[in-house]
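Quick start: what a row looks like.
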Amino acid sequence: MYNFLLISLGAVLGANARFLITRLTLQKMGPDFPYGTLLINVLGSLIIGFFMAGPWKHSPSMKAASLFVAVGFCGGFTTFSSYAFDSITLFERGQWFLAGANILSNNILSLAAILLGVALARLL
């Protein structure tokens, strides 16, 4: 039961963080490109890479933190379905370049963020 509570609390915080970041990026950068979704996917990838690869992953107390952060927070925070929807919307609008940029940047930057998170975790 404790694990479910950890995951649930993390998911609530992640979903609210996603909402706030999306609104802020819309205000600052406008609606032409889904910058918020991109930022969220990259940050979520960095966070999950860091927490899932660190030397603490076998510690009982850090296992709980990993459930809270990697499963709960990142599960509520990252927006792959939003990324897919944004990509299709850009295609449907005929914005081929932006659609391609969205697909490439989300995939490349998120994969790079995972590698960075893993590298940071291994430095500790």
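That is the whole record. Residues 2-29 form the longest helix (28 residues). The chain has five helices and no strands.
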